[in-house]
Fold:
Amino acid sequence: MALVEILSSARREFFNAFQNAAATLVPRTVEALFSKVNSENSPIEQADIVRAQLLLQEHRHEIELQLTKNMQQLLDRSMETTYQNFRPNLSALSISADNLSLLDSSAFESSLRFNEVTQLFRNVAEQELIDLNIRIAVLFGQDDIRERENPFRPYLITRCIFLAVESLHLTQEMFSILAMQLGETLTVDIPGIYQQTNAELEKHGVQAHLSLKINKSAETLHPRGSSVGTQQNVIGSQQINNAFPTFNQLDFPAAEDVRSAPSSPSGNPPINIDQLFQVLRGREKTAFSAYSPTVAAQDNSSSPAWLANTSDLPELLRKTFGQSRPFQRGRDFDLASQQAQQETPLPSAEMAQSAIRGLVERFSHLPVPEQMNAAPSELEELLIEKDLIRTLGYLHLSMKPDLSILNERGDVRNLIREQREAFSALARSTEELMIIDVLAMLFEAILFDDLLSKELREQLGRLQFLLLQLALSDRTFLSNQHQAARLLLNRIASVLLGTQHLPVTQRKIEEEIFRVFKTLSRHDCRVPELFERIYNRFDTFISTELRTQDKFIRRTVKSIEEAQIRYLRSEQTSSLLMDGLAKLDVPQHFANFLTTEWVRAINIAERTDTSLASHLRALVPDLIWSIQPKNSQEEQSQLSALLPGMLTDLRRGIAMLDWTQFKQNALLNWLHERHRGVLLPTQEFSTSKTLVQAREIFLNFLEQPAVVLSDSIEKNKYHEVEKYLHEVLAELQLNVVFIEASNTQVPLKNEDVLSVVTTQDESKSSEILQRLYSGAPIELAIDNIIKRGCIAWVNPNMSNLLLSLNQQAEPVIISYESFSHYSGNGALAFVENAPLIDRAVQAVLKSAEIIEKQAS
Structure:
């Protein structure tokens, strides 16, 4: 049988075996995730796993379709590239024209997760994979056994899975969980897949026996994606070992650089600044990003001065970011003393002036003077003073309008990193050198953040000089999460992400953000409270826009405010009434009637008939006076004159309460008996008041002031406010979705979600509270469907929030307690695992930890 026919037959067997395993892969993975929930100790990890489980259920059919499609295309390309001397006729193998490249692997090979899954498949396949590698070599008449020439190698299966998950466009956390779990679940099927493929080849006479010629010469390997300026790595091995290679750390370029760095005199390998950037970029992007971690070679081979004396890079950075851990044995040190250990010589005047001239020529639209004038310009003053902070302000304000912010790959340029040497020439301390490098690393993470649009990255890229100037002049920018500039940038990124389901609103928000960046382009950090004022204005704009952009949101907010006004009015009326009752002796049951039911009647009348409300309010002191003993003829005559009118108003008020006839008769009969006995002496009242005195006692009640919405409502009273809210919504015929942690009838019906038990500690609750603002992007699981949206409105008293969700007209009302509860068990989550700057800080810290771990 011809080679092409044998290979095509093996391909069909491999594909059918994979397809059969993929048909049940998603349900099995869902079960595996469910079993993992209770095994995780961290509530955050539990929540992530539950969200991943829901996503998998929601996108089951899409993933299954992608698995089949991707494997077909990958096999097409893999068959085409098997051994260099084999280029089969595409039509003979029925290869689709829509092929996927197997060789854009610089990003793939730099992903530890990708390699972990591939190695996991190799481990479980064991001898079956070794035999298949040999059979493929025999089939092509090759002595050189290489797994990479096997068209059915584990690499294809791993990439097929990762591509399927990548098509869902998830966050990096969800991508990692799903891709890894799908791979782990598939491991039980891998031996069978290769066993069937081997059996098909054996059926056609292709045996797993090869007369090997041992080649003991060293083979030079070039790691994929090794265009980073690293030396070639020589690995001596027998060719037979290529039949079943193990994972090599050289597949991860950053790891290679760390190992190859020479040791310092102190015994610790010096840290090349490029290593930090390489790890940072590789860590920030998923395995299937179009971005390659390759960076241009730079002359940064020496360790930065601020790293020369540190034995703990992550801890130094944590202190810089204000995130220092509690005391660690042997690692507690003071940042200032650490920096003071390294004396940085000041650059020469010629170097500093040369650096300024070069920066201005590259970035400023203003000319560089040939010689100094008698009255020096601002640039000439810079050349004299050689001040880095002022130079950055000058560069920012005079930046060329046509400056290309993109590099040849289409990525936003990291200008701080590009001009690191020039800025370092102007630095006057080790601390300033560190801030330059730290800002460059932060921007490396920001400019490659998957959650940011390209347009926003470009706008942020133009603020690099301004933010470096800010970091050098205000050290709290790095250490304080509530610093105004950080709040502004975090809010912009969050709002753009959260309002994607509101295209009309997002256009208005984009226009406002454009105005924000335009304002920032015209000012530098010398303007007092620049970022504070811009942030306050932007916060007000977003809150107003999201509150009013949709009629359902707008009416629901008004309904909540109306419910709060009704509750506060009722509480105020009842309180004033009780103040008056406390000065008199009134039967308790009658006092309870007045402070509850009669207050309710007054409040209802105030919304429908203000004249009637005045009568009902004025009736209270008269009614209380009427049941007191009347010892004079004058009082008896006065009571007889007032009684008909009082009973009329009493009946009108009772009619508003929807009482049963029995209940009405019970009250009226009791009053009738009281009025009959008022002429007789009684001991029930210790004192007797005149009608004028009774009215004076209730004067504050009769002249009740208006309610102010700013009055606070205690958290334990929210359920009472909700009663009024349901009443208002019913009157307006508004449909909304209520979510309450204490209510078993909430729309969150997924048993797996509700079964997760977790406790919210104070730190977690405080973190949630800080991120509750209009525009914050969230995901909510309703009826096993994850819907993305944003917080549309936050009640100023923090009692509840209003959510706007994609493809759902009805707003969602959720209390703060419920938000905290469901965010703890995975039914509700922020789309961002942290705000923009905080994400960048976390990325830098994790990259530093990777560097330290690899160096050790």
Q: What stands out?
A: The CA atoms of residues 123 and 246 lie 9 Å apart. The longest strand covers residues 785-794. The mean pLDDT is 79. The radius of gyration is 37 Å.
